[in-house]
Predict the 3D structure of the following.
Amino acid sequence: MERVSDRLREALAERARPDDPDAEPRAFSEAQIVTLRAMLARIIPTAAAYGIDIALRLDRMMGDQDGNGWRYEALPTDPNAYKIGLDTLDAIARHRDGADFATLDGASQDEILEAIAAADDLRSSDSTLFDAKQMALWFEEVRSDSVRHYVAHPAVMARIGYSGFANGGETGERFVGFRKVAIGERETWEPEPISPAAGQSVR
């Protein structure tokens, strides 16, 4: 960590702090958080092992309106898109299986998510919810946002051998950053990736 600036070190320490599963959501309702957690458990099943509650992190991001600065024209603002998308996901589950998404078994949840990704129309028309195209776009955004939070966690960076955060300390030799940047080259101080355990992968 000596090659990491103080400001970035503080940010990494904050990311590494385990999330409180009992924390009150800021942007979403309790029902929406439950649905979001169930969906994310199918997308990134290993996040919980690192103490990462991606649903809460996305809730904070939406509460702060701290997104990536752009959106699809077919979607509303990120906070509203998440709320409508989660409500639509539950409506799809109830229309298809007669129960909320979070209460379905994993296989049924996967079938719904795969159909959403393919822009299949799974529900009866409701002008207050997303159509199939909007759901496919929103689901793409959710995957992008959630994976971004996941790989930003220091433990995940260590597992995949990512060292790009070593952008230089404050002064002197620590400020140098990287000298070897060709494919296959590694600095002597760079960490080696940790091979993931069987079955531990990001979908």
User: Anything to note?
Assistant: The mean pLDDT is 84. The helical segments are 6-16, 30-43, 54-63, 78-97, 106-117, 132-151, 154-160. Residues 19 and 52 are 6 Å apart (CA to CA). The chain is about 45% helix and 0% strand.
